[in-house]
Write a structure and sequence with these properties.
Layout (H helix, E strand, L loop, with lengths): L6 E5 L4 H5 L2 H10 L4 E7 L14 E5 L10 H13 L3 E4 L4 H9 L5 E2 L12 H8 L18 H10 L7 E5 L11 H4 L5 H13 L3 E5 L5 H8 L7 E3 L6 H9 L3 E5 L2 H9 L3 E4 L5 H4 L8 E4 L13 H4 L4 H4 L3 H12 L10
Parallel strand pairs: 1-2, 1-4, 2-3, 4-5, 6-7, 6-9, 7-8, 9-10, 10-11
């Protein structure tokens, strides 16, 4: 890769966790090219997680990723904006051909992608992204995700959690927008609401405060869960925060519990001790990682997991991988993190 790069574009138009997993690549590119302008093309929903990143010059947002170029005014305007930047290099971290088509239309001739550096399924996505960018042999904090919050956002979180006694344990109820889930690829990650309720009860019994997080679509469920519980030690914030305010709340917790979702990656990026209830996804590739704080992955071996990328994913009618995770197992992981010093979770 040339040392005389003026403009670099990194492309990953995915969900929250997908975008955070790109941040080690952004940091490494900045170190290699300190004078270059590094832009990011990402989804509209995940863009807030890149805002404020000191390694990024500008963020280009894409709201409707699946609309064909020929009928998408948004993509046509995007191509014009990209062409005007005259990029020397694009790091393409998407496999769908439509994204290479966008970059080609934007007159970017040097495109590095999984075509040139094939995706290694036994390595984490973070490692694969770095390899596409021509960066290898990083370890320790070189693989950590980044999320930069403002003092104002931290103050908002402090106010939202005011008067809530410590220790504070967050529980992420939802796992992304419920709309458009026509098959099991998203629903399979969910945990039984009765298990959630039991975990909340057990934590409250032990004197722990509980903070429930989620999207606006999760608000009704969280409100139902807290109806009969002591309001002085439980707080429902689902649907009451922006993505960055949610991140600030997660960063203020003693432990965060989540299924496999973007909120779990937010916790890892911020160094919040984390318990992840893991089911159908590919552990080696997408689990949250952190060298700054402990990450406990709770999972139950079943013969059909991981099912992502296989026909089983769409035919599954019962997510036994998640059903097998008991409230006691989740509680044990939380108590472990509350009662000891942080440990380092290696990526390898």
């Amino acid at each position: 890769m040339s040392d005389r790069m003026n403009h670099i574009l990194v492309v990953r138009v995915g969900a929250l966790g997908d975008t955070l997993m790109v941040t080690p690549t952004l940091r490494a590119l900045r170190r290699q090219h300190p004078l270059a302008e590094i832009d990011v093309l990402c989804s509209e929903s995940a863009a807030p997680l890149v805002d404020g990143n000191p390694h990024v010059s500008r963020v280009v947002r894409l709201r409707q990723r699946n609309v064909p170029y020929a009928v998408s005014l948004e993509k046509q305007h995007c191509v014009k904006a990209l062409r005007a930047r005259r990029y020397d290099l694009a790091i393409l971290l998407e496999r769908a051909p439509r994204y290479r088509g966008l970059l080609t239309r934007a007159a970017i001739s040097d495109i590095r992608s999984f075509t040139e550096s094939p995706f290694d399924p036994v390595q984490h996505c973070i490692v694969n992204y770095l390899r596409v960018a021509g960066i290898g042999d990083l370890e320790g904090d070189g693989l950590d995700m980044e999320l930069h919050l403002s003092d104002a956002e931290t103050d908002i979180a402090r106010r939202l959690l005011r008067d809530l006694p410590q220790p504070r344990v967050g529980i992420q109820i939802g796992y992304g927008p419920r709309r458009g889930k026509k098959h099991q690829s998203q629903r399979l990650r969910g945990w039984n609401p009765e298990h959630v309720a039991q975990l909340i009860h057990d934590l409250l019994e032990r004197g722990t405060s509980v903070v429930l997080t989620g999207s606006a679509e999760d608000r009704a469920e969280t409100e139902r869960l807290v109806q009969s519980l002591p309001r002085d030690r439980i707080r429902s914030l689902a649907g009451h925060t922006t993505v960055r305010e949610l991140a600030a709340v997660i960063g203020s917790l003693d432990v965060f519990v989540s299924v496999d979702t973007g909120a779990a990656h937010i916790a890892a990026a911020l160094g919040t001790p984390l318990v992840v209830l893991w089911g159908p996804a590919i552990y080696e590739q997408t689990r949250p990682v952190s060298s700054r704080s402990p990450v406990q992955i709770v999972r139950v071996p079943v013969p059909c997991a991981p099912c992502y990328g296989t026909p089983l994913m769409k035919s599954c009618t019962r997510n036994i991988c998640m059903e097998g995770i008991t409230p006691d197992a989740a509680l044990g992981a939380v108590e472990d993190l509350l009662g000891r010093e942080p440990r380092v979770i290696p990526l390898g």
